Amino acid sequence: MKKILFFLLLLGQIGNSQTQYPQDYFRNPMEIPIVLAGTFAELRPNHFHAGLDIKTQHREGLNVHTAAPGYVSRIKISHFGYGKALYVTHPNGYTTVYAHLQKFSDKIEKYIKECQYQKESYQVEVFPTPDELPVSQDEIIALSGNTGGSYAPHLHFEIRDNEERPMNPMLFGLDVKDSRKPTINGIFAYAKNEKSHVNGSQKRIELRLIPTAGSDFNVEEIEALGDIGFGINTYDRLDEAPNKNGVNSIQCFYNGSKHFEIDFKRFSYSETKHINRLIDFENYKTKHNYIQKLFVEQNNPLSLYKDVENNGYVTVLDSTSSVYKIRVKDFKDNDVWVTIPIKGKKLDTPEPIDDIKPMHYALPGKATNLEKGNISVYIPQGTFYDDTYLDFDVKADTLLLGKDIVPLQKSFTISYDISNYLDEDKEKLYIAELTGYYKKPRYIGTSRQGETLSAKSKSLGTYTLESDLVPPTITPVNFYDGKWMSNATELKVKIGDKDSGISNYRATINGKWILMEYEYKKGTLTYNFEDNIISDTENNLKVIVTDNVGNSSTFEATFFRK
Ligand SMILES: [Zn+2]
């Protein structure tokens, strides 16, 4: 039996090794060595990073090649997120993704601009058929850029399996230099319930790291009892870049036996939001760093866990000695060990738990309705991971709904009865979340039905009603009324809206719709004269910008071109 088990384990090992993924099939999509600003499954706000962020030497406009032959199966252009993104499907079933692009290759650019002009929209998403945009080995498909939610030029590159699940592209033999070990920033201990403690505490405690002669760590012996778990703050630095990247796996051992593992090899999009269940969310929101919990609590559907014993908790008995070890590995198998000696000790007087709790209680398995004054809140079933005490109060138009330190799986709905407002004021109202230290109002997608304004949110916090009376601003950047622009390659305006923010824009020249690319980080709209929309000498540009409550501004100017 043991032999069979060993054989099965061996098979499992082979199955997990890189041989099952085609090696040398996908090339480096860039012409420069791969240096990473971000690794696969790295921890990001509300998601795991789905690919590699390949640095582009602080520049835009570098050639991006298809990683392998195939066909363009999807083109998506959005103001936020991936910006200009290209998806190439390969004959072996994998799809590669290239995002934050500046521009596509001529044939793809022509294809997508036709769609944009037809739909009269910069934002588009299309799914070309296999014969429309085939790409051959090494073909240049785009130029790298910084579009969408990218804050420095880079190429975001993904490899997805045939079920659209992003995988670590490094599994396919892409080479990245990494000779450095992961960094351990902090080790934490947690008591699972009121019957357990660590060093007499039932709250999260940080353990003091003691470097060993090698490059590993010990922590001071802890005294504990009952079910306890651990947490780790760690990152990995690769060679040739200072970026703090994600690690490849975290393994835990209790008294020499494998006890728990997080393996960042692959995940699916439906689970990426549950990163907030993996991390200590309260710590993340208050201290702005990531502690990964090395135990699995209820309602955690993440598939990254492996070999989990006792949900990752260890059970410490009185007057026992045990050892918990953590091994953090990067993709190149550089590893660091942390050893935690544990002594079982019963407490004489357990620390009392604070028993002042808020009035309201929300359960994961039940929908919750809260109502006071002109505000109601509907929290659907399955919103919370845990049974949660919830602060709820309404003061005038301000809703206090707990604190943004509890992770949510779903959005809840806030509704305001606005029948006590004057009709002309109702038009300008929106629901805002009060964020940050200064409680700055931030517009959240508000819709109106009769006398009710409602909005959805996925974070607890403070909300209020705001009104936006000021229409957007539109300012020309590289021209003025009456200017000759024969040699200009583009037409640029700056747009902005102070309160509710920009909802949409529309630009025409001589009455014909023109494609203006919106760059939200700079607040610019840019038209490229290569689009060849105009042939007249005298041209009238008209730009209309509308904010989220419907205030709109119109800008008009005449320019000449020969
Ligand atoms: Zn990225």
Structure, explained:
With 562 residues, this protein is mostly beta strands. Helix content is 8%, strand content 42%. The protein has 5 helices and 48 strands. The strands form 9 sheets. Strands 15, 16, 17, 18, 19, 20, 21, 22, 23, 24, 25, 26 and 27 form a 13-stranded mixed beta sheet that branches. The structure holds zinc ion. Zinc ion binds at residues 38, 49, 51, 53, 156. Residues 38, 49, 51, 53, 156 line the site of zinc ion.
Q: How large, in whole angstroms, is the Cα Rg?
A: 28 Å
Strand content: 35-45%
Largest sheet: 13 strands, mixed
Q: What distance separates the N and C termini?
A: 86 Å
Question: Structural class per helix/strand content?
Answer: mainly beta
What's the β-strand tally? Answer: 48
Helix content: under 10%
Which molecules are bound besides the chains? zinc ion
- Uncertain regions: pLDDT < 50 for 5+ in a row? 1-18
Average residue-wise pLDDT: 93
Shape: flat
Q: What's the SSE blueprint?
A:
Blueprint: H1 2-16, E1 36-38, E2 43-44, E3 47-48, E4 52-55, E5 63-65, E6 70-77, E7 84-89, E8 95-101, E9 103-104, H2 106-119, E10 124-126, E11 134-135, E12 140-143, E13 154-160, E14 166-167, E15 183-191, E16 197-198, E17 205-207, E18 209-211, E19 217-219, E20 222-235, E21 249-254, E22 257-263, H3 275-278, H4 281-287, E23 292-293, E24 305-306, E25 314-316, E26 321-329, E27 335-344, E28 360-362, E29 368-372, E30 375-379, E31 388-390, E32 392-395, E33 398-401, E34 412-417, H5 423-426, E35 429-435, E36 440-443, E37 446-449, E38 452-457, E39 461-467, E40 473-476, E41 483-484, E42 490-496, E43 502-509, E44 512-513, E45 516-519, E46 524-528, E47 538-547, E48 552-560
Parallel strand pairs: 19-27, 20-27, 41-48
Antiparallel strand pairs: 1-4, 2-3, 4-13, 5-12, 6-7, 6-10, 6-11, 7-8, 8-13, 9-12, 13-14, 15-17, 15-20, 16-20, 18-19, 20-23, 20-25, 21-22, 21-26, 22-24, 26-27, 28-31, 29-30, 30-34, 32-33, 33-39, 34-38, 35-36, 35-39, 37-38, 40-42, 42-46, 43-44, 43-47, 45-46, 47-48
The protein binds zinc ion.
